[in-house]
Design brief:
Elements (H helix, E strand, L loop, with lengths): L4 H10 E9 L4 E9 L2 E9 L8 H18 L8 E4 L3 E5 L3 E3 H4 L5 H16 L2 E2 L9 E4 L4 E3 L6 E2 L5 H21 L6 H8 L3 H21 L9 H16 L4 E11 L3 E10 L4 H11 L8 E5 L12 H8 L13 H12 L18
Parallel strand pairs: 12-13
Antiparallel strand pairs: 1-2, 2-3, 3-5, 4-5, 6-8, 7-10, 8-9, 11-12
Amino acid sequence: MSLPKDDAAELSARWTEGVLLKRDVFSTVERGRFRGNNGEVDAVLRRLDEVPWWSFLLARHLFAREKRALARAKGLNVGPELLWAGRRALVRGFVDGVALHLAKPHGDLAYFRSAKAALRRLRRAGICHNDLAKEQNWLVGRDGRAYVTDFQLAACFERHGRLYRILAYEDLRHLLKHKRSYAPEALTPRERKILAKKSFAASLWLATGKKVYRAITRGLFNFTDREGGGRRLVNDAPVLAELIRKNPAVRDTAIVAFADRRSGVGLYAFVEADQARLEGQLRNELSAAKGPKPPEHIQVVHALPRDGSGKPRTEILQLVAMNQLDLIEPMMKNDQDRAFLKDILEQRKNLRDRFNFEADLPTG
């Protein structure tokens, strides 16, 4: 399925292709640059030309909801600005920040105050997001503020009736669930009360609709994880990691997913070891094991970046795998992290789909 001629002509003249962020049965999403009236800006493009025929009607419906919500949210400064919209493609501004589950703003009370203020602005505009339970739809901006993204399920209301109030309540309750995860000590008595009381609609959804939703998304559409790695990340990666660790030269490994223009989803294995030439041996061992398809990329590093508990910081490794390198620097905790990162970046493997988002790279 191709884009309409007017959409294709507009994008040909104004869009510069960058990094693929996501591709599924509802759309292709990529980061690049868009030429507006005031010059080029970082932006994100959603397009429907690679959507299969059997999901196109639903994809078009979700696209229309996002286009309408972004148009209404223009100027609210709560998320990406709508820069251009055609019949089967739209361009929204790029928010300089990372997803909540990558940034992990533990104890950051200012962030959650900002998030609550963003919801108030959406509420006044008559917009309910309806998908804020997902941490990847909350962004932690480089300025420390909260932003929301992915308005495909958003609903717009002219009047603040009962349905609107229920959906707005659920948006707030989902925000408070994230606050409970990252700043539980800051929850007020009223917020705890909201967390303890689901709306009737939410309770009914959990008991009925959500089971059907999971059966469809996990069975038919292969959506099984928040990072977009699908079954490969959820099912294949643990098996591959176990096989890699069997090699006596390997100290540890971390496998992350990245969007790939050819296969849709790729796996990238970072292997902690001293032998730089271990990659070929590991690839042969994985192929001989007759298990899951080996990762598209295997990179041997002298050390994996780790958090305070010693766990690999997969949120950083995923940004490396996705070539979103300019988003990494704000996540660096210390000079030791920067030293690890410098080594990893110099030898990184996914060079096919990259762009010049590297101006702010740490230099060690």
